[in-house]
Amino acid sequence: MTERQKSPAGQQTADVVILGAGPAGLTLANILHAAGIDCVVLERADDAHVRTRARAGFLAANTVRVLERHGLAEGLNRRGKPHGTCEFRTEDGSFRLDYGALGRRELHTVYPQQDLVSDLLAHYLDAGGRIAFETEAQAVRDADGPRPTVTVRDAEGRPGRWRARYVAGCDGRHGAARRSLPPGTRRHHRDHGVTWLGLLAEAPPSMDAVGYAMHPDGFAGHMARTADITRYYLQYEPGAPADAWSEERIWAALDRRMRTDEHGPLHHGRILQRSVIHLESDVVEQLRHGSLLLAGDAASLPAPAAAKGANLAVLEAELLAEALVDELRRGDSRALDGYSPRCLAHIWRAQEFAHWMIQFLHSPVGPDEESFFHESMRRSRVESLRTSRTHQDWFAENYVGL
Length: 402
Ligand code: APR
Fold this sequence. Notes:
By secondary structure, the protein is an alpha/beta fold. It has twelve helices and 21 strands. The chain is globular. Helix 3 packs parallel to helix 9 (about 310-330). The protein is about 35% helix and about 25% strand. The longest helix is centred in the C-terminal third of the chain and has 28 residues, at about 335-360. The chain has helices at about 25-35, 45-50, 60-70, 75-80, 115-125, 175-180, 245-255, 260-265, 310-330, 335-360, 370-385, 390-400, and strands at about 10-15, 15-20, 40, 60, 80-85, 85-90, 95, 110, 130, 135-140, 150-155, 160-165, 165-170, 185-200, 210-215, 220-225, 230-235, 270-285, 290, 290-295, 300. Strand 11 (about 150-155) and strand 12 (about 160-165) form a beta hairpin. Bound molecules: adenosine-5-diphosphoribose. The site of adenosine-5-diphosphoribose has 27 residues, from helix 1, strand 10 and helix 9.
């Protein structure tokens, strides 16, 4: 099979079979391939879809370090934009935090995820890495033994099978890896009770900061993506379809909540993409089940309030790659045995901060005493972040850190 062709029917082998060509799967594949480990990536979508799917784009300092360590950062170092400022617009006034000068003095890099994934894919293919597109993993079998197999179906619906020493489940929250976990595997889920409308607008950024607006009508967020594309979030009616609001109504809500009367107009433009995002989080209790190991969204889903998803995915991919190289090259399984607890420490820290951000950005709904109490605490939290250097350092360290 050449690098790009579909996987023929029948049985094939690789030491490590990686499910999914997202940030987790492709970072892992690049590091393993560079270490001479026999691996293959099985990806359900086709090449074009993988390269163009717009998702996150806010890379933490640790992610840049990992990618630089493995020679995978050329694109983001050339085209990524360093970012270190948040602006909070509240009913009690607005304030900016130059978080790059606070905490560990670390910055984010704004680099659209589709560009990162395209770079990782190009690097892997140029190095002779194996990937099978339009190949959907159906199930992982015998993961409790030394030779797990992955059953697949290709674009023509033909069944196939991959035999491996290890299977890396990097196929997201609804992928085959999660579906193949042993019965009784514990997952911890939290519904944050908040819904956002996620928007991609064909408009230049309207501020040189990540903008967080807390407004009686609900939260609004502004994140630059490129010089011509801006990501917006709007707190939205739970259950409403993505197309319930007209573009006029969306821009009117963004203008009102971002208080353009005080801070100047937003650049309006065509809404290119919209999606309803219900804020929820989940964590699989153990990330290793015999020869099946989880990374990225397959391992945990942090609510998107703190831009942790893609950054956790890259962190976990490096830890897993190094552990698999130790095991497959040197027969040393200590890092593999420690993989799950090491990742979970980062995962729960990210969950904790994402939860804090959700409580910070959203007013509780309802006139009841409970809501009033929470709202008063929330406003005091805002005031503390505005005035306390200690709180600002804590914020910066957790906002960028993992
Ligand atoms: N078989 C093969 N491939 C699959 C299957 C399957 N059964 N199911 C899903 N996939 C593929 C998807 O098409 C996708 O390309 O797995 C890949 C998973 O990639 P991501 O969803 O990007 O997941 P991950 O690498 O874990 O990165 C997650 O990136 O997009 C951000 O914020 C987002 O937190 C998220 C992070």
